[in-house]
Design a protein that fits this description.
Blueprint (H helix, E strand, L loop, with lengths): L4 E7 L3 E8 L3 E9 L5 H16 L6 E8 L1 H7 L6 E6 L11 H5 L4 E4 L15 H10 L5 E6 L7 H14 L3 E3 L9 H31 L6 E4 L5 E3 H6 L7 H14 L4 E6 L4 E7 L2 E2 L7 E2 L2 E2 L8 E3 L5 E6 L6 E8 L1 E2 H8 L1 H12 L10 E4 L12 H8 L6 E2 H4 L4 H11 L3 E5 L2 H7 L8 H11 L14 H27 L10 H8 L15 E4 L3 H11 L4 E2 L7 H8 L2 E13 L2 E5 L5 E3 L2 H22 L6 E9 L2 E2 L2 E2 L3 E10 L7
Parallel strand pairs: 1-4, 4-9, 5-6, 5-7, 7-8, 11-23, 19-22, 23-24
Antiparallel strand pairs: 1-2, 2-3, 9-10, 11-12, 12-13, 12-16, 14-15, 17-18, 20-21, 20-22, 25-26, 25-31, 26-27, 28-31, 29-30
Length: 666
């Protein structure tokens, strides 16, 4: 085999995929391995080794390694991540009320430091005494810091000084807001920075696990990570700005979907274990979200594909509403460890308990439910309350039944907090278990899936009848719910793209259209382009979902590894913005990509801004791993005429540099 092979890896919530790809031959080999959250290297190693064996390729043939991941997205959707300290420079407590910042902050600490700048980059003096007093104690209770300064995009000097001080005293990772976005809007930039800080340790572990694996196996090739807009960045950059990898997996899958189907227009829906991601392909490119990516209900400042992420997947929690005369079902948004998977990993620890619960004549509140540690490093479990620590100590690496674990009602809320911190997995029935009972999936333990559904079908509805007569009947109901809920989230995403304010889950008209209900007025709903189904379980779910939505179904042969393919066929892109403002007549201030500069000539200030933006974009593209980047410049000049005089409000120069990633030449 000749060289020029690329290795694509995608680490999802449930599976890690690997694909060996050749630019002319396409997919040479592909494999999956379970994602091992306690040690990501295990799952990566399993998938990559399987691919190399399949292809019988020498490691020296690999010129590029590229990684996409949904770990950051999943963490934000599930409300997980490390504890971060937020430092607000020049802001006040009232600013927390904007853009959902207070809600996102939760119980994490925040410090307000006097300082900051104005719109032209002039400073209010920085006073670090509040920070110095709080840091020694604070550093013991957080895993990272986020720093957001007032108008830091115009002048980042205060953020940089605060970062230096925090690093001197705590040696913890620090994220500054000016590194993540050049847009105005302090609270949302602070929110984005806070989320980035929470993700640092997680992405650092992932990239580190990958790098260790490559070194151990003698793979000498540059390593890239997919960004949220589908572009590639060097792994070293992803460690510093992990927030840019939110929607990395979905963005990679869109690039992969277009490559695999050849379709320039389509609705792409990617179902994983934890989430369903929906986006629109238009003219061969993913639509980008002009406002910034929305993940877990928070709008960030990360430029990413206009992807809507819903907490709905093959491993979603099954909620049974037994209050009505007939029971109804709802899935998600939390991911559970499916019983079939838990039993495949832990065998008798699951099966013996399920069998014992089934023999009991009474239905237990916690039947078929277990808790197990996720196996994250101990230091990430810092800052637990006494009750949380006591419960955490009773949960080990082998699943423990909730009926044995929870002795008082308040402990349920305590357990939920441990799950939200990413320290504990709950195990229970999921659509994946239903598929095992129906014989449409067979990779895990079908016996545990059947026992779980047999326990659940004993729940009685409002008319005192069991919610299902057989495990198969319950499985059908769960799968039907997944089809319907998937249809609703795909419609919701498409309607939002069309600018229509309709919630399909609450619309009587949409409900009638999806049920094909009879009536004097006949409602119908259909997509105007094919539905491209991605994900390992796409072939079992998406034909029925496409039919529900009146769309053609396009499920490519390699739908199960579209993310890993997208990870290697993408491009490196970097953008830089430079601004020119006029604080007073005849004075021009150039801000961005360096210190502030005052000039007396508009043409000279514009020329400097263009050169700065282009140089910064090219430098960043090369740092991000581009071989021969090419630059493209956009100019947005706001200079209205006021009383016959042209008045410059702001000129913005945005340079974008792009190119293929640098590859190793062996």
């Amino acid at each position: 085999m000749t060289s020029q092979y690329m290795l694509g890896i995608d680490t999802g919530g449930t599976y890690t995929d690997a694909v060996l790809f050749h630019e002319t031959e396409g997919v040479v080999a592909k494999a999956k391995s379970l994602t091992t959250r306690h040690d990501l290297a295990v799952g990566i190693s399993g998938a990559v080794q399987a691919v190399l064996e399949q292809a019988a390729a020498p490691v020296s043939a690999i010129n590029l390694v590229s990684l996409s991941t949904t770990l950051a997205t999943n963490a934000l959707v599930e409300g997980q991540g490390g504890r971060a300290g937020l430092v607000m420079v020049g802001f006040g407590p009232e600013d927390l009320k904007r853009d959902g910042l207070a809600e996102a902050l939760g119980n994490d600490p925040v410090i307000f430091v006097p300082g900051g700048h104005d719109v032209h980059g002039n400073e209010t003096p920085l006073d670090l005494s509040v920070l110095d007093a709080a840091l020694p104690e604070l550093a013991k209770n957080v895993s990272s810091f986020a720093v957001a300064g007032y108008f830091a995009v115009r002048n980042p000097s205060h953020e940089i000084r605060v970062r230096q001080r925090i690093r001197e005293i705590s040696h913890l990772p620090v994220t500054c807001s000016h590194e993540l976005s050049s847009k105005l809007g302090g609270p949302r930039r602070a929110l984005t920075t806070l989320l980035n800080a929470r993700l640092v340790s997680m992405i650092d572990r992932l990239v580190g696990a990958c790098e260790d694996f490559l070194i151990r196996h003698g793979i000498d090739a540059p390593m890239m990570v997919v960004r949220g807009d589908g572009a590639l960045i060097a792994a070293s950059e992803a460690k510093v700005r992990p927030i840019e990898t939110i929607l990395s997996g979905p963005a990679a899958s869109l690039v992969g979907a277009q490559y695999l189907t050849g379709l320039d227009n389509g609705v792409v829906s990617d179902i994983g274990g934890t989430t369903t991601d929906v986006a629109v392909l238009e003219n061969g490119r993913p639509r980008l979200d002009a406002e910034g990516a929305v993940v877990g209900g928070y709008r960030t400042m990360v430029e990413a594909v206009a992807m809507r992420t819903y907490g709905l997947g093959g491993d979603s929690e099954v909620h049974v509403n037994d209050r009505g005369l007939t029971a109804s079902f709802r899935l998600g948004p939390r991911r559970l460890l499916p019983l079939s998977l838990a039993a495949a990993l832990h065998g008798d620890a699951i099966l013996s308990v399920l069998e014992r619960q089934k023999r009991s004549p009474h239905v237990g509140r916690h039947d078929g439910r277990f808790a197990v540690r996720t196996g994250v490093p101990d230091h990430l479990a810092s800052g637990l309350q006494a009750g949380e620590q006591a419960l955490f100590n009773r949960i080990g690496k082998v699943p423990v039944a909730l009926e044995d674990l929870l002795t008082t009602t308040p402990q349920k809320a305590t357990l939920d907090r441990l799950v939200a911190r990413g320290l504990v997995h709950l195990c229970g029935i999921t659509p994946s278990d239903a598929m095992h009972v129906l014989g449409r999936q067979a990779q895990w333990n079908a016996e545990a899936a059947r026992l779980g559904l047999e326990l659940a079908m004993r729940i009685k509805d409002g008319s005192a009848r069991p919610i299902a007569a057989t495990a198969e009947e319950l499985a059908d109901k769960i799968v039907a719910r997944l089809t319907r809920q998937s249809g609703e989230v795909i419609l919701a995403a498409c309607l939002a793209e069309d600018g229509a304010e309709i919630d399909p889950s609450k619309s009587n008209a949409v409900d009638r259209a999806l049920k094909r209900a009879e009536g004097i007025v006949r409602f119908a709903v259909a997509l105007d382009r094919p539905l491209i189904g991605l994900g390992a379980s796409a072939p079992v779910y998406y034909p029925a979902i496409a039919e529900l939505l009146g769309a053609d179904s396009a499920i490519p042969a390699d739908a199960d590894v579209a993310n890993a393919i997208g990870a290697v066929v993408g491009q490196v892109r970097a953008a830089a913005s430079v601004f020119v403002t006029m604080p007073e007549e005849g004075i021009y201030i150039v801000n961005g990509a360096g210190g502030s500069v005052r000039l007396l000539d508009e043409a000279e200030s514009f020329a400097l801004a263009r050169a700065r933006a282009s140089e910064a974009a090219l430098a960043q593209a090369r740092q991000n791993g581009a071989e021969d980047p090419v630059v493209n410049l956009l100019e947005d000049i706001a200079a209205p005429e006021i009383e016959g005089q042209r008045k410059l409000v702001e000129a913005r120069f945005i340079a974008t540099a792009s190119g293929r990633p640098r590859i190793a030449h062996h």
